[in-house]
Amino acid sequence: MDWGYIISVMIVSAFGVEAIVFGLAAIGINMQFGYTGLLNFGQAAFMAVGGYAIAVTVVHLGLNFWLGIVIGLLGAVVLALILGIPTLRLRADYLAIVTIAAAEIVRLLVRSVTFKSYFGGSDGLQSFSGGFFALNPLADDLALRIGPVVLSNRQIFVLIVGWALVFLSCLLVWLMVRSPWGRVLKGIREDEDAVRSLGKNVYLYKMQALVLGGMFGAIAGFIYAVGNEAVSPDFFGNDTTFFAYAILILGGAARVFGPVLGTVIFWAVIQGTDVFLRSAIQQGVPVLSLMTGTQAAVVRFMLVGLGIMLLMIFRPQGILGDRKELALDAR
Amino acid sequence: MVTGLTPNRGPNVTMLAALADVSCSLSATVEGRRQLTGGAPRVQRRIMAAIGAIFVALVALFAMAQPASADGEQVSGRLENRVDGKKTPISGVTITVTGEGFDGSTTSGTDGKWAIPLPARGSYEVSIDVSTLPEGVALTDAEKVTVKTVVGPPTINRTIIFPLGVSTSKTTTIWEQAAQLTVSGLEFGLLIALGALGLSLIYGTTGLTNFAHGEIISFGGLAAWTLNAGMGIPFVASAILAVILSGLFGWLNNAALWKPLRKRGTGLIAMMIVSIGLAIFLRNFYLFFYGGDKRAYAEFAGMAGLEFGPVSVTPTDIVAMLVAIIALGLVVVGVQKTRMGKATRAVSDNPGLASSAGINVERVITVVWVVGAALAGLSGVLLGFSQQVSFQMGFQLLLLVFAAVTLGGLGTIWGAIVGSLVVGLFLQLTTLIIPTELKSVGALLVLIVILLVRPYGLLGRRERVG
User: Fold this and answer.
1) What pLDDT, on a 0 to 100 scale, did the predictor assign at position B66?
2) How crowded is residue B240: how many other Cβ atoms within 10 Å of its Cβ?
3) How many structural domains does chain A have?
4) For residue B414, what are the domain limits?
């Protein structure tokens, strides 16, 4: 068993593009679910809005990618308003069902043959990240070597920008939730009626949390798009949202660094399991090598499902969470 | 009907009954004490053991399906014009395939044959360019212009059949199409209703929004396929067995997972997230053992349609609709007329009050889980006729089931059925106007619009929900 290889893959995936994308998405969900108690099951839709905004703006409109970022953020605001207006006055599960439906609508629309000329159908869109990489100040021959895994200068640039965005987002969340505004959000999570009786407009606060969380989702979409230099519709399925939830619960909801710690551990474990099983099959390890490669790839998703269940049942506060402040399993 | 599905009276499938006994004894003695903090090791151990029991039961059930592997992936087929049973090859027709980042096209040869090699396994969409068909030849099923297929274990050379024949498109009016779509919409609606009724009953009595309900639907279809095509049991027998197994599976779900969680006082949102975890786990569990292929039952392949005026239905469609109507009718009558049904409605209305009136709430919930899961399993079995069996058949239906339940009014029985029929009809009839691939978009949009106007659903009680 090549442990050196397995460990270097785990390190690279713990801090890779996927970890950044899901970390940002989870930061958004933390804003909505962790602090305000809103069940947004459509984070994938917000990510799709971000990713496709950059891609369509550059590929079809031929405009600067900065404009794509502005359009993506505005798009996330509009989507949050559309989803929030009918459902934020209703019980929590209505928002969950409507957002999950909306995510599926967005995915079906962008992958449809009908709109293929705009969104590229099931192939998605490519070659729009030139504007982003033109900003790359790193030397062309720069490369980072972690064991047998080599990162090119483009990948390093994406990682630097991505992690900078993650920490900026954390700073922003920290500043917001320690303000009086943030205390109202936590109050809504604990007891909506109590906050309402204090004369606060609960609906408006919930809407603000939904919009902000959606914008973090759009930023995650930007990183996904430039990091892969492509957008593909099937990435934006419901499983993406659920993985972000798994990350948030693992790290600890209602904690500023919960999503960050969650995403690092999540991706190290997920990709580590995959590489471990693959090399176990290659080496002919007893029992494990009865699996085919395709089956080995499925095992990690079974682990995600099992992980969500066990965490929620036995440690709903995750790693960083504080049971006294937030008990996800209560009520 | 209701008591007939409880596990202790069902047929004795030795392996399952033994497993069921294990988890029963594991969870039956959980104290009713509400646990305030995480420090409840006995309950936790039991839940762990119970989850283990579910896992073992699933392994035992599905161990027989094994995918295989090889190389040389391709899609191929032969284009033939069928007129009165006579076949003539059609050449020069463009076929394109897309998927997994691959795009390829070819034209059919003089013998009508075509083949496109693929770079990798995965799911692909194969389309026929109708404009390149010769004069007078058309697709007899306009929906088959694009065929979705999965290339991968065990079949890496997929044969795609485009049904070609004399162009009939000129003779069908929009009304005839509408009639055909109404029938298929009703059928689909009835299958959704089977899933929706169970979901709604469970939601009504326990408050759980069960995201793993789709996986119970898949369970029914996969179990029927395993018994039928895998073990050679005649279809009717394997369908009945699959429904019973689904009921048992529902019972196991409740006894091993949800009942202990309720006893701990776990919140509804936490339980919803647990159900998402369970759904992801089960779906990938099915994928692990069955692979990504769609599978058909051993019998009933390629059945000819019966003509009723403008409407063509296969005998399996008729049987599926009748079975669905009978099952729905039995459950509705059961809920309205029997003592257990009255108890169920009482628990839905107010569990605390029902309990103090002498109703055994946990017993009601157990019955509801068994019946609800059996209905979902039946939905999966019947869905296997029209859409074939796959690991994600239930997952793909789940959103429509949710739409139906919410549309009708969460927790209401007639609402779930009416909502399902509306969703089914809406899905099919909107294809007259919008492309078939976007029909789910229409249905889900309607859900959002209805929530704007009537948040309590079409048949729900007018009350504040939130």
Assistant:
1) 39
2) 16
3) 1
4) 3-65+180-453
CA gap B404, B383 in Å, rounded: 17
- Mean pLDDT on A176-198: 91
Judging contacts by C-beta atoms under 8 Å, the chain A residues touching residue B435 are 112-114
pLDDT of residue A180 exceeding 90, the answer is: yes
Nearest to B410 by CA among B107, B271, B202, B102: B202
Q: d(Cα B271, Cα B266) in Å, to the nearest integer?
A: 7
Domain presence at residue A213: yes
Q: Which domain holds residue A24?
A: 3-237
Chain A residue nearest residue B209, CA to CA = A93
Are B120 and B151 in the same domain?
Answer: yes
Q: Higher confidence at residue B39 or residue B327?
A: B327
**Under 8 Å between Cβ of B235 and B381:** no
DSSP B76-140: EEE-EEEETTEEEE--S-EEEEEETTEEEEEE--TTSEEEEE-SS-EEEEEEE-GGGSPTTEEES
Q: Are B83 and B136 in contact (CB under 8 A)?
A: no
One domain for residues B104 and B14 = no
Structure tokens belonging to residue A26 = 């989870």
What pLDDT score was predicted for residue B168? Answer: 52
Which residues of B fall within a CB distance of 8 Å from A309? Answer: 51, 274, 277-278, 281
Residue of B nearest to A241 (CA): B276
The structure tokens 């408006």 sit at A204
Residue B466 inside a domain? The answer is: no
Whether residue B161 is contained in a domain is answered as no
> Which residue reads 């919410």 in tokens?
B406
Residues B445 and B328 in one domain: yes
Same domain, B346 and B374: yes
The verdict on B97 and B60 lying in the same domain is no
A120-133 pLDDT, tens digit each: 888 888 888 888 88
- Percentage of chain A exceeding pLDDT 90: 50
Q: Which of B164, B162, B71 is nearest to B125 (CA)?
A: B162
Helix (H) or strand (E) holding A231: strand A230-231
Q: Decide if B85 is inside a domain.
A: yes
